[in-house]
Design a protein that fits this description.
This protein is α/β, with parallel strands linked by helices and 316 residues long. 54% of the residues lie in helices and 14% in strands. The protein contains ten helices and eight strands. The chain has an eight-stranded mixed β-sheet. Strand 3 and strand 4 (69-73) form a beta hairpin. The protein starts with 9 loop residues before the first strand and ends with a helix.
């Protein structure tokens, strides 16, 4: 039996901080690469642990890590600068020359406003999904802790509604202008065209994100109370936005062979939480044991990946 996650072209990893998202996403990407799949691992988490795990300096462009595996770490500051540069490019020829300096000043001020880095990150996410997916068999996203992940995944819906409102206002303004001119001729409006193109890209990404044949959502949790509660809330919140989480990685399971009193008490506690997980979640589950050291080297990551491979290809 093969886990369904293996057949998807886009896979998002989310979860509470500290549960092992980056390790799980990296181990999964490494497993795919060993299976011969061209894989791109993308970190949207500003903490950026992927480069540390592979001990490579990563940037916003794909860098080869191993055979069939490349990775990107998205830098929010660089993406915000690139995003605002793109906004300025779009305004070329649309704003009178005597106003352009003031418009650019306002755009630069907007770089520090709430949501600017979020908009830039979203723009990069859209470009990766639409422009890179033909070059790779699977794109694996390692996202920031739960709240940021939910916000990122629901942005296509929110931005689509926002841009619909902008288009309606432009349409109304253009109709009024045409009526005022009295010739009934449609008004040429480059801003409307730009907004319409963005609407089409947002709609394309949303279609990909909602297509369960293409996209999988994985939440990583530990068999402990707080990660379980946070995962329950996240799964319910994403369901309200038509996003279904179908796979869980239960990470850092304690070794059963240790017979010390301390570990036996912890293992008994873990049994309780594993029963809670199995009763509360009907998602496919992948169980990963706790290693005896940090996963901060390629050798340690291979150990996690090999265990994950056993779970992904059960009975083969």
């Amino acid at each position: 039996m093969v886990k369904k996650i293996l057949n998807k072209s886009i896979v998002f990893f989310g979860g509470k901080g500290g549960v092992g998202k980056s390790t799980s996403a990296s181990a999964f990407a490494l497993t795919l690469a060993r299976q011969g799949k061209r894989t791109l691992l993308v970190s949207t988490d500003p903490a950026h642990n992927v480069g540390d795990i592979f001990q490579k300096q990563l940037s916003g462009k794909p860098k080869r890590l191993t055979d069939n595996l490349s990775a990107i770490e998205i830098n929010p500051d660089e993406e915000t600068k690139r995003y605002l540069k793109g906004v300025k490019e779009n305004l070329k020829g649309l704003v009178k020359s005597k106003m352009i300096e003031e418009v650019h000043r306002q755009i630069d001020l907007a770089a520090g406003s709430p949501g600017a880095d979020e908009a830039a990150l979203f723009d990069r996410l859209v470009s990766i999904i639409l422009d890179e997916k033909e070059s790779f068999d699977t794109i694996v996203f390692d996202t920031a802790p739960t709240g940021h992940t939910i916000r990122l995944l629901t942005l296509p819906e929110l931005m689509g509604a926002w841009i619909d409102g902008m288009l309606k206002r432009r349409e109304s303004m253009n109709e009024n202008y045409s009526s005022w001119m009295g010739d009934g001729e449609p008004v040429e409006d480059p801003i409307y065209d730009i907004l319409h193109k963005r609407k089409e890209r947002f709609a394309s990404v949303r279609n990909v994100l909602l297509d369960d044949k293409q996209t999988e959502y994985v939440f990583v949790l530990n068999p402990e109370r707080l990660p379980i509660v946070e995962t329950e809330k996240a799964v319910q919140t994403l369901q309200k936005h038509e996003i279904d989480v179908r796979t869980l990685i239960v990470n850092k399971l304690l070794p059963k062979e240790d017979t010390s009193t301390f570990f036996q008490k912890r293992i008994e506690q873990e049994k309780h939480y594993l029963e809670w997980i199995n009763q509360s979640f009907d998602q496919e589950k992948i169980y990963i044991p706790l290693l005896d050291g940090d996963v901060s080297s390629l050798e340690a990551l291979h150990q996690v990946s090999e265990r994950m491979e056993e779970e992904l290809f059960i009975g083969q």
